[in-house]
């Protein structure tokens, strides 16, 4: 399943690139640059600081969306925390606090959005939608520096959205199948879920609340629970700025996190 999922996502992204150049009316590209910073001990007793800068190229056509993400990563701590995983089995002694930086793992994603029947007889659910995502994490981060597991991971995710008046209620549920890692021998496959609400405050601005749950990636740590407040501002039909501030609800989560993303859509 992993090889097949990776092939499907890579084929979509690579095959779509020349189509964008030759027929832009068929494909809608979007380029996004993000910056994330977080700090906390994640239940290990020693603080870890994370800096993460992802660069993403997305291509949309109708209900389909493909996305490729590369990143830079900076970690200061004992080497037992990875971005999006929280605590995992320590790669180094717990007392060894080091500063490491390098390329993060790359992500390939394929998504399909299914809108409900828009006929009046559909009732409230006629405005809802479901998005199915297949995400492959490519092991491009340095194993020697403790920035990645060195293994291919595959995640399946389902997102649901339901507009209610000027708000949108949304939820996600998914599962990550992680490859066995020699660096983190105790790493586990695990599930995750999100629940949130967003509300339009003007024609171009919106705010929202988000609850995030991640099942532990190691038997040495508990599940992670976080709450976030975010806002989005559309400067025009091309540029969008999104910001998010998060707080951990238990010891296995980051104490605090801050994220910004600037996107440009052709």
Verbal overview:
- With 266 residues, this protein is mostly beta strands.
- The chain has one domain: Beta Barrel (Porin).
- The protein has 1 helix and 15 strands.
- It has one helix at 2-22, and strands at residues 28-40, 48-61, 64-77, 81-82, 86-87, 98-103, 106-115, 129-138, 153-164, 167-177, 190-200, 205-214, 224-234, 239-248, 256-265.
- It has a 12-stranded antiparallel beta barrel with strand order 1-2-3-7-8-9-10-11-12-13-14-15.
- The longest helix is centred in the N-terminal third of the chain and has 21 residues, at 2-22.
- The two termini are 34 Å apart.
The helix content is under 10%
User: If helices are DSSP runs of H or I spanning 4 or more residues, what is the number of helices?
Assistant: 1
Largest sheet: 12 strands, antiparallel, barrel
CATH fold-level name: Porin
Q: What's the N-to-C terminus distance?
A: 34 Å
Quote the average pLDDT: 83
The CATH H-level superfamily is: monomeric porin ompg
Q: Return Rg in Å.
A: 19 Å
Instruction: Supply the CATH class.
Output: Mainly Beta
Strand order of the largest sheet: 1-2-3-7-8-9-10-11-12-13-14-15
Q: Identify the overall geometry.
A: globular
* Strand segment tally: 15
CATH architecture term: Beta Barrel
Binned strand content: over 45%
Multimerization status: single chain
